[in-house]
Amino acid sequence: MSRDETVCKYCGVSYLILHEFKLMEDKVKAMEKEMKFYEGSVEREKRLQAQLQCLSRDFEQCTADSESKTER
Predict the structure, then answer these.
(1) How many structural domains is the chain composed of?
(2) What is the pTM of this model?
(3) Which domain holds residue 27?
(4) What does the record list as coiled-coil region(s) (predicted)?
């Protein structure tokens, strides 16, 4: 192919490079969307771990109280 067939007559950019650039833009957009999903996940995980520990302690306390009541 001649250069005239592979280059945009308006901007002078190769169609192959332009196509690759568009693909990369799409990938970046998808990755940004994925990052938004994971944003704050560490903080959420810590908060959930704290809640789980609290609920676990409450459950153990209730179990101990229940056992002490059944012994009486």
Answers:
(1) 1
(2) 0.49
(3) 3-71
(4) 21-48
Quote the CA–CA distance of 22 and 27 in Å, as a whole number: 9
- C-alpha distances (whole Å) from 16 to each of 3, 9, 19, 23, 31 are 12, 14, 5, 11, 23
Over the chain (72 residues), what is each successive 10-residue block's mean pLDDT? 73 81 95 91 93 96 86 69
Residue 52 to residue 17: CA distance in whole angstroms: 52
- Whole-angstrom Cα distance, residue 29 to residue 23? 10
Count of residues in the chain? 72
